[in-house]
């Protein structure tokens, strides 16, 4: 917003705008619907289009937002959808793309600018695959190239070494694990890249909900591992995006 | 006790004992002090001498019990002693043996019967050493042969492979780790022996108190790992003792 | 894997293999499907066939893995299945065996090598029976002989004594209890064998989810009790298997 | 208070009192100090004298209250005192009685009316003794006869049977245990009397602070066990007092 | 069991029984079904008939147990049944009595011996009524006279005073409350009888599951309140039964 | 009640009433149904009509209470209703008003006295809207004027500044947020009015259930923010009502 | 800050300021020290002077800040000081005022503008007094008139009624309680004013740290109670200040 | 290690080495002390020298490790030291450098290779400074340029805008906050760079230990924020190091 203010300062100084007009300009430019406020400067500020978090919204709320985007011909991606919501939305919006195994509905017309570098998405087990698919989809939307390595967890530690070369060539490592969540620690001890650890809500008893994986990752004895919320594939993708974009900045 | 009852049944039947005499015999044989009850059948029942848990007892309570054992010339080992308690007890009982780095005071005159097999005590870091030393001392008292492998944790996973041969020759593996507690999972994925995992109260933030290590070990994706309480070197030693003794039973 | 590497070292030294061929050999030999990675060395490393954890996998994922095993004529056991999943899978794989009260689907053609010794599976109540049945099934697949003692919990402590002789003849005791989880402590105070305690998610209020039983078992005043995750019948069976196999090793 | 109001209604009706005088009478009769409010009707309402909870009060606050009681020649008992507070208070009030092993200071001149019946105080270990001593002292002040059975916990379950007869003759059983807290469950399964379970803050790791014992007691599979706060010897004594007094009521 | 053993001692001594016969007698007398163990001495030991906890049992398990009781013409009460289970069981056992609002199925032919004294069941709100009804039903089965006072919680504290006389005439007070659980504290400050507090799983957010009520009751500043598990109407009834029976013992 | 007692004192003194009549008057005036106790003095004491908390009541219990209110022609509002309950109640009471997006059923005939001042209801996201709607409805029933600002959370902090003027003109700010719950802190740092923060149960992983938002709000570094239970729109409305009414009192 | 921006807009428009000058003005006006940033607009924005939270700062950090305030002759109040810090600071700043029982150091030269209305500070016990004193001191600094009612908790509920008139005349009620934290619920059921509940870290076992009081207050069945962090006397004072100031606004 | 193995494969193939010699080479090259295992390949693997975590080690253990490094003339940095440990170590190693405000002892002779890019270290308050200083020291040792912005937290949100330009020029943002931990969310909503959030153990009540800040950061509604353990300045520095190094890789 500061950029905007600086620009408005300049325009008022130049006599192009009154103070009141300046304030109104801000308000109008970022219209508000009934229950929703479109953040039109996010792309400019943070570099990515609207990503709607569908998990805690009702189908009605999602539809209202989607209608707006559709009407304004804006790209979007909606995450965190369960099968029931996808079924309803599919009927309503047959023109959108749906990826059920990733819990995603999207409508992207423009090709995102290609981000340099590559992300590796590594999971400990088969059960973590949904988070991996969500992460991969979002990375694609953000213009990030990525590769997946599924089911190479710690119980059979030799599986990691199979892909050592491929992993070593990635610029950021997203590591997803449930249960005891040991995989990011092992990966972080072998590889020097940034590691974004994602606890998965896989398991039962004390593992239920992903808490033991979360604590394990935060406690990791391998230095420099960072963690996002449980099942937060979106957050991991965004973190990788931030990291790769940062690497392109002239330093 | 059932054995005893069976024996008493037999003796009453044989007319050697009246019913009343039988009941009194039980009571007398297991005398009680003021605040303490000596379990004289434990060795017969479970195969080990008295091990006094000193952590939650006052020095006065420990001394009262110790005096009794001393007077009756009974062997004992007292665990969970901090430096302050050791200092006081050392002055009072110069004839006893003290191992401060293991938090132990003991008075053992008899050589325990040798248990077949060997235990490996493996720790993730230097900070876990105290628990390892306690475990080792108790195993010695129980007649169990053991070897220690300190500071070979997961952050540098190649360190495990250095000792692969030695570990593979042990019959039971006691694995101690704090922080994210990943070591038992990795060990359990490589080796086929029984693994007794001990969470250590090493770390800060979410690792503080050993809870993340505990949860990680209980959640382990490597099948068949069992866990004892945090810092419970005594429990791990007893479990190894139970396992090794069980292996000697004719099957 | 080290064994393999040692063997490959030897073969390269012998000129049978180039370094590159050695690396490729490892990769090929452990093929990967789309979402799943078959660990072909597990049996050699740890001594047991594939056990698939079905609880956190979708029916589709289970089916994909199962198809692979079926096609390759490999034995497997799949655990943690609820009634809904069993119904679907039963229709798809009428040739497999289903044990709903244990939550298990399996396809085992070979007879496992008999493990020496015997395991006792003891439960506190009727409600813990499902975990006991799962444990028993897996032990059978692993070649372990076992006997069940259901509903002999602490509230009527005399029930334990009825089976004292049978329990005393087992080489490892798996004790399953929900609610206050006191049974392993009592068992561990009477019997000298290894005790593997399994908290059951039986109860309501503070017992809900099995946490009070878990804490109770970890806190046990009876030395040498070890614990696995809540409802983890698989883990308990594997631990017993490790213990009994360890007892057969020449010491 | 209602009793009082009823009486005042009657007196106003009888013309002995104006409405305003009635309200003032209530206020005066229950004078307030600076930081403390003496509850002069408690004995009449609940049947016991003032018991001051000293744990969360500063020595200064305790002294201010004590001075008041001393000056008015009122009996009191002050609980929850650590060694430091006892040392300071002992110097200031040499005329009072101090029981350090129970954490108690008291000044009781009158003999309490004897309550019918007897309470048994049973502890699992030596470490629980302090709570037992506090409980015993308060019961004495309340006129309740009691007997202590220390260190007869579950790990050696036969110890309970030694005192079966004595325990069976008590009218209420106060059972104190730390660690896994199994003793009240076992006691409750054998004996038919009211059981008041007291978790003790004995133990380390998951037992620390008495939480596993608390959960275990609340989860007990033995019907009708009731629980008080951790280390709450005062509460247990009061509960026993309420129970025994209730038994004396004509029914 | 000790009684039994004492009796057997005597009979062996008298030559009526051999030692072996004595052991067999115990086993036979307490037959075991497949998944269930009937505790035939409970009534003698603790004074009440079988109460089956139906919540964590499957309908099949309940039916198996019920069939046994039916066939042996034994009285029973089964608690913790939800509407689905009641519907199924009602069809199968039309001859039994069902009380859905209490979650209970029962088959009681004999009139229980009348226990002297009276219990008051007090709830804070309408939502706690189910627990109150369960408690009341069980008390009836145990021969205890009781009266209910529903929805007189702390938010309108004058409601308690309406029933002061009736409550004061009861010998034990069972107080059920969810949310902040303050009612037992207020009741315990006004009345001198034993108070058994039952946290109810009423509420949302931090009250969800009854935990804040539980902690509140355990923390109560009113001395001598005892607590049972959340929603544990059965436990509260049993505690009241123990208390009232204890009051009848000759002291 | 005290007011009442004072009045009754006066009337007895005046000879208009006997003491007994006074006591009966209290009882009669606050009739009790079977499971429910109408608090007829609440409006007089606290200034608002009956608000029934429908979440933890069964439809039957709600209907019984509603029938009573209908029959006595009393206003009420019933909150916390999910879609299933609303469907059933709508059929039964077509004459009542239902607001599903707020979870509310109501029957209000009288216009509440207008409270001076205005409340702002501010939410961080679209997902928090249900709580906002409940809050708004209750405020209307209480005669409080309010305005809603939906979806202006911290991730795009400039959105707050758009409504700075409108927010600044409100007398009390109700701020609803899930996830990390940062919005009340930011609001409280900018505006000087009373802030009532409502954690919303929006989010997954560590945010699930609203706990991270709750802790965040209680920990706020912005002084003077107060917090109500998770999703407690009712409580927030009542707090605002108390605050605005207090402002009208002559000081 | 917006006010400032609006003003700057106007001044730029008026030609008094260039855009660059405007930006620099903001930065300069809010100078920064080494480790500390004085918020010079807080009084203007929120209406109160600097209150330094001393609990988590070292004595050195406090001294650095204090020196700055002293040198600039600015008023301040520093809270959360323990006895050790107060001793050190007293020697260094003999000219400041210290209130150890409230944990406060302050240097206030100007008389704050009188806020209309009155706050009542009510505590459940003697042990909560420190929080009450802190609250009172801060209210004084903020120009708020207040009265304290100490030790009138729920265990003797009649004590509240003694002060009914005085409490009823206050405009906002700050209610401090540890243990089971029931007092705010009872107060909130009797009085119609805003209630700010403060959990106190008084108690042991499950009450330790103030958590049971916190949950109890958040769960309160009395509508419209709001809560601040445990022991947060500062927050309660600030909330009362916000409320009373809001009441003075022209509506 | 794989690199090493690949190299050894090649050398064996080339006939330079026998298979046995290859295995021994690995073991020797990574000598082990008594309680400590130097990881000589870490720098090669991960790019940084040894960083010793001093918090959970005794002074004796630290000294033993330090002696080894000193004797071998190796650089090291030891973190997590409290004042007591620093005092003892200072006397023993006067030649080392100590930074008490960062809890660090170090001995670095070589200048680290300069890493491109810059890190910003931002804290919410003065109390978070220690973590910031630790982070800064480690970054320096790793060759990373960094700048600190202390005490610019959310309660006065305008303070962030003062440094907008400087922050915008950094390539990675380390944001440290205790209490409600809202700062990373706000920063992440304004700036597009990678954000590494560090919860600080600042606060009391529910903030104590840094848990509310941790949960808040993991729950952040601003996409792509990653989190490390509470007070984990070391982890944050390592994460920034990984990110900046990754940015230099040719992509």
Task: Provide keyphrases for this structure.
homooctamer, 251 residues, alpha/beta, Rossmann fold, 2 domains, 5-stranded parallel beta sheet, 9 strands, globular, 1-(5-phosphoribosyl)-5-amino-4-imidazole-carboxylate (AIR) carboxylase (chains A, B, C, D, E, F, G, H), PurE_dom (chains A, B, C, D, E, F, G, H), hydrolase activity (chains A, B, C, D, E, F, G, H), P2CMN_synthase_LarB (chains A, B, C, D, E, F, G, H)
- Neighbour order of strands in the largest sheet of chain A: 6-5-7-8-9
Question: In DSSP terms, counting alpha (H) and pi (I) runs of 4 or more, how many helices of chain A?
Answer: 11
Q: Structural class, judged by helices and strands of chain A?
A: alpha/beta
CATH topology of the largest domain in chain A: Rossmann fold
Terminal CA distance of chain A = 25 Å
User: In CATH terms, what is the architecture of the largest domain in chain A?
Assistant: 3-Layer(aba) Sandwich
CATH class of the largest domain in chain A: Alpha Beta
Name the chain pair whose interface involves the most residues. A-H, 45 and 45 residues
